[in-house]
Structure formats: structure tokens, C-alpha cells
């Protein structure tokens, strides 16, 4: 079971990153929505998941590439607003759990219809 401190850290990091993304001038990034963030125990690494439901494969690749370039700006923002001594290294990924849930819902609907 995850402890409350870890969940609070993840929630805070999610909020800081979403705030930083919306403040960027790049329209590819400012419109992205983060679904969840998971930070490692010592705050060394964090996995940030992006909602890719409205992005095609090319837009997903472009968004991930742009996020990689903007990482230093995102880290600077997180350090500034959080007051932390260090900021984790970010790895951005597309969150496919929402799409999987939609596929399952559609499958169950077809099963019920039969």
C-alpha cells in the first residue's frame, strides 16, 4: 500500500507540471492534459502520463519530442513553485489506460446487445 506522503507528492507534482505546461507558449504543449504522475521514492525520477485520446500517432510523437525539449523549463517551474531542493527527472508517456477502458466498455456493450 502506498503511503499518504507518496500520494501527496504525486498529486502535487501533477498540479505543478500541469500548471507549467499551460503556461508554455508552445500550443502543442499548453493544450496537453496530464492524467497522472508517479514519482520515485527519493524524488529522482518521475513518470508523467499524458492523455493521448485526442492525438493521432504523429501528434503523440511530436508532443513527446516537444516535452523532452521543454523538460528544463518544466523542472525550473516545479522547483520555483514547490520550494523543493531538487526536482525529479521526468519521463513522459502516453496514458493508454483511458483508451483501453473505452475499448472494454464498447466490448461489454456489444456483449450485452447480443
Q: What is the strand tally?
A: 3
Instruction: Please list the strands of the largest sheet in the order they lie side by side.
Output: 1-2-3
Give the strand content: 15-25%
Helix count equals 4
- Named at the architecture level, the CATH assignment is 2-Layer Sandwich
CATH class value: Alpha Beta
Instruction: Give the CATH H-level superfamily.
Output: K homology (KH) domain
Would you tell me the overall average pLDDT?
87
- SS-derived structural category: alpha+beta
Structure description:
- The structure is a single chain.
- The protein is α+β, with helices and mostly antiparallel strands.
- The protein has a single domain, classed as 2-Layer Sandwich (GMP Synthetase, Chain A, domain 3), CATH 3.30.300.20.
- Helices cover 59% and strands 18% of the residues.
- The chain is built from four helices and three strands, in the order H-H-E-E-H-E-H.
- The protein has a three-stranded mixed sheet.
- The chain is globular, with a radius of gyration of 16 Å.
- The model has no long low-confidence stretch (mean pLDDT 87).
- Belongs to the RbfA family.
- This is Ribosome-binding factor A.
- Its main location: cytoplasm.
- One of its GO terms (biological process) is maturation of SSU-rRNA.
- It is found in: Cytoplasm.
Amino acid at each position: 500500500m502506498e503511503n499518504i506522503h507518496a500520494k501527496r507528492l504525486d498529486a502535487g507534482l501533477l498540479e505543478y507540471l500541469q500548471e507549467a505546461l499551460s503556461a508554455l507558449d508552445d500550443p502543442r504543449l499548453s493544450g496537453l492534459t496530464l492524467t497522472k504522475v508517479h514519482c520515485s521514492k527519493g524524488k529522482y525520477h518521475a513518470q508523467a502520463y499524458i492523455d493521448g485520446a485526442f492525438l493521432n500517432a504523429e501528434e503523440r510523437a511530436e508532443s513527446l519530442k516537444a516535452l523532452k525539449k521543454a523538460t528544463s523549463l518544466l523542472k525550473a517551474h516545479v522547483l520555483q513553485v514547490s520550494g523543493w531542493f531538487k526536482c525529479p527527472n521526468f519521463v513522459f508517456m502516453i496514458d493508454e489506460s483511458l483508451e483501453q477502458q473505452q475499448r472494454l466498455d464498447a466490448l461489454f456493450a456489444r456483449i450485452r446487445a447480443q
